[in-house]
Amino acid sequence: MHAVCAGRIEDYGYLADGRSGALVGRDGSVDWWCPSRFDAPSIFARLLDDDGGHWWIRPAGDFQVERSYLRNTLVLRTVFTTRDGSVAVTDALAMDSNVRGHEIGRNPPGLLLRLVEGLSGHVPMVMSYAPRFEYGRVRAHLDLRGETLVARATGTTLGMTATVPVHRQRTEASASFTVDPGQRESFSLAYSSTYHEREPMPVDVPGTLAETAEGWRSWISEHNYPGQYPELVRQNVMILGGLTYQSSGAYVAAATTSLPVRPEGHDNYDYRYVWLRDFSLAMRALYQAACSLEAERLFRWLAEAIGDVGRQPVPIMLGVEGEHDLTERELDVLTGHLVRGPVLIGNDAWRQRQQDALGQVIDAAWVLRDSLKPMPDDVRRLLRSLAEQAAETWRLPDSGMWEARGEKRHYVTSKVGCWMALDRAVRFGTVLGSAADLERWAAARDEIRAAILQQGWNPSVGAFTRAFGSDVLDASVLVLPIIGFIPAADPRMRATIERIEQELTTDGLVRRWPDESAGFVICSFWLVECLALAGERDRAAALFERLVGRANDLGLFAEQIDLRTGEQLGNFPQAFSHIGLLSAALRLTEASMPAP
Prior knowledge:
There is one protein chain. By secondary structure, the chain is an alpha+beta fold. It contains 13 helices and 28 strands. Strand 5 (64-69) and strand 6 (76-82) form a beta hairpin. The longest helix is centred in the C-terminal third of the chain and has 22 residues, at 435-456.
């Protein structure tokens, strides 16, 4: 069996089932899947090491590729064209059968489906199946049980079936077959927990694929978005849906770990967790995109997951079922994407104080307030505790939204997040607090605002800067007009936008700070919003459409984009980037409406 090499980040498509996500390369290889849940150990990790495990199906010779999702689904169809003819491979993670709408994905069967269909000619095909358990650390013997190849290790059982003859070689399997026009060959891989193992059941791959597609379409049909860019918005809502752990409703920041944000490899963190910031922004963006979110369920999960924090820092990130301890460690068994390590699991940012998260959560609750009537007691307690923390701790330095692991500072956006928490708490009125609480919160809000305007604005730079007393530009301050702290047309904000355009922007991509080598996708979409808010709607729309063209051929974004090569960098697909796109599309729609 010959060696294979992982592709570039943008070469991958994404599959999801409400519990986990898988990446499929343009070469037909499934190179990432953690079947039990997003942050569980992988069985395929070729994405991070050539020997990390894979399952590929592709033509035996050279080929060209065109691919797309079936309309309104995350079912991926890849067409391989060779000199002998053409063949389609359709891939999906199966959804629960006979379930529709927002109920899909809560109890998926743990099935990876692959259907090969001949389109023209006679195409020789090859298949290679090499599962590796616990991030590539363990190989298991493949045993034949009836017509199923079974592998068991580390509490995981995998059962692979195929309608073509398969050759077994201890821990791997392969097949060679030819597909004629109209011919179909089916492949499936079933995951189960070894100690709660279900007997392998025959899988109707074409039927289950059709059922899965219908499930996705029923889900997206509940999102009746009336604004501009409807197809694009629908697609990005679908991607965020694919990053959702449906049992709790939590959104993971990305489906992967340790994909580098710099070409040389750096800051290779694990993003398979729920950041309060991302969770709140996703809720708000999806709600505004006419998604019938179960707002009460999501906020109640958040209240339960955070618990009674008292005076302790609010956790800024959680596991998908509300876990707090996400201790980081390095895996020595994987070399990293294109040998650009290290590979990390867990994320020590869970220990940080990030004050802007306080405001993001209360702001999301404010936007979704009509869906929180009457407000449940546990949600009220959560929002009150966040407001109290903002009032009591806003003067403290923190790690900021970019999660600096060095010295804590007084980041401008952290102070703005505290201002936002108190501003929204005051707007809620007596729903959250007594008259005395509201008076105290309003006083703290006004004090924070005065401090930001005095210490966050640097007259010698002519812009709002990264932190109090700093002379460094930072694109994070683009959020100031977006959250309503200051109008985009205010001379200070207008000057800040211009400085960021001049000094941090290259070909429409906005770097976070001057010495960064890649554009940060959400910052680039924040610039779109700022321009729209400043009354430059046409320029904002042109930038938006240019940025949308930076996605891969399936509309997927990583976190950053290399300014020299256009290569996508960072974990993938990245919720933050797709949230930015959605918010910018909504802002452009708003900017197109006639003034009241």
